[in-house]
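Exercise 7.
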Amino acid sequence: MANGLNPAQQDAVNTLRGPLLVLAGAGSGKTRVVTFRVANLIRHGTKPGRILAVTFTNKAAAEMQERIGGLLGKQSDRPQISTFHSHCVRVLRRHIKRLDTRTIRHL
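Solution. The predicted structure, written as tokens, is:
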């Protein structure tokens, strides 16, 4: 086990092409896996600005940001790491003018 990861976790970290969904129970090491994968992608040439990591909690998102910073050191370009909710809000704000308000139903 490299970096304390089991074989399935290491396989996820070493998957360098395409998107990856990590689903597992609480306390199983999801944050650790995603953190190491993001660092591995960057080390293998993926631009940090092209990486999106989403999670359910602010705590997990903050932990990932901190851990990735520790693994990669100071870099001006950072991957986007956020909760599902904050990512969706960011997308809506960025593209709000594209919404056809006639299709939005008021409850």
